[in-house]
């Protein structure tokens, strides 16, 4: 039996045979992800939440231009990298490598960030 399937079986027995919800697993360190798509969905939605939060902050604090975009990209990629490599400690190769996980849902979160940033900036800092 491989180590990952053994780990899944042990986790299932520790939970009393009850399946954990996706969000419970998302906020538990070293959670067992039976389905690959389930973990990728968590990465996608966490990235969207980060985009909204940073868009509001950037709009309230009148941040402009390339500096705002660059800081968003660094924070967005950095937080998710720390999440899946240190907090969840998953095997990146199982999901196509570090780059695949880092870019999962990035463009939609970037678009959402820009929309929220523009709306808040325009609403609060009009001339």
TrEMBL record:
The keyword Membrane applies. Coiled coil: none annotated. The chain crosses the membrane at residues 42-60, 66-84, 105-124. GO terms for biological process: mitochondrial respirasome assembly. It comes from Parambassis ranga (Indian glassy fish). The lineage of its organism: Eukaryota, Metazoa, Chordata, Craniata, Vertebrata. GO terms for cellular component: endoplasmic reticulum membrane; mitochondrion. It comes from the Eukaryota. Belongs to the EMC6 family. Keywords: Endoplasmic reticulum, Membrane, Transmembrane, Transmembrane helix. The keyword Transmembrane applies. It is a multi-pass membrane protein. InterPro entries: EMC6-like, RCAF1. This is GEL complex subunit OPTI. It is found in: Endoplasmic reticulum membrane. PANTHER family: GEL COMPLEX SUBUNIT OPTI, PROTEIN C20ORF24 RAB5-INTERACTING PROTEIN.
């Amino acid at each position: 039996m491989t180590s990952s399937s053994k780990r899944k079986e042990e986790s299932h027995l520790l939970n009393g045979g009850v399946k954990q919800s996706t969000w419970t697993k998302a906020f538990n360190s070293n959670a067992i992800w039976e389905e690959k798509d389930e973990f990728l969905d968590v990465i996608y939605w966490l990235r969207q939440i980060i985009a909204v939060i940073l868009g509001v902050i950037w709009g309230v604090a009148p941040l402009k231009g390339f500096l705002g975009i660059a800081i968003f990209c660094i924070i967005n990629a950095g937080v998710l990298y720390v999440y899946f490599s240190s907090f969840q400690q998953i095997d990146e190769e199982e999901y196509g490598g570090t780059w695949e996980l880092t870019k999962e849902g990035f463009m939609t979160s970037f678009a959402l960030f820009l929309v929220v940033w523009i709306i808040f900036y325009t609403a609060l800092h009009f001339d």
